[in-house]
Amino acid sequence: MSNSKRDRRIFTEEFKSQIVQLYLNGKSKADIRKEYDLYSSTLDKWIKQHQDSGSFKTKDNLSDEQKELNELRKRLKQLEMENDILKQAALIMGRK
């Protein structure tokens, strides 16, 4: 095996699900990793996502704290935009 970095591969939801099913049906992680040339961390992540939420989408596997933080960031951005609009309006109104 060479030390060169492997190109990033994109896997479909269906493929991930099939790989997890192989594991759930008794195939060893080592055999799956070897046969499909997967990193151990990748396979473990897919299995955990399947167990936690049944979804492989990152947004479906966020903790409650991560979801709240994302919502707060979105709300902060919204309020900053509204504040900028109000400042612009005050400047315009001040000129009249």
Contiguous runs where pLDDT drops below 50 for at least 5 residues: none
Largest sheet: none
Helix content: 55-70%
Order of helices and strands: HHHH
Q: Mean pLDDT across all residues, rounded?
A: 88
Overall shape: it is elongated
> C-alpha Rg, in Å?
23 Å
Write up what this structure looks like.
This protein has helices at 13-24, 29-36, 40-52, 64-95. It has 96 residues and is mainly alpha-helical. The protein folds into 2 domains: 10-60; 62-96. The longest helix has 32 residues, at 64-95.
SSE inventory with pairings:
Blueprint: H1 13-24, H2 29-36, H3 40-52, H4 64-95
Helix pairs in contact: 1-3
Briefly characterize the structure.
This protein has helices spanning 13-24, 29-36, 40-52, 64-95. It is mainly alpha-helical and 96 residues long.
Task: Identify the notable features of this structure and list them briefly.
4 helices; mainly alpha; 96 residues
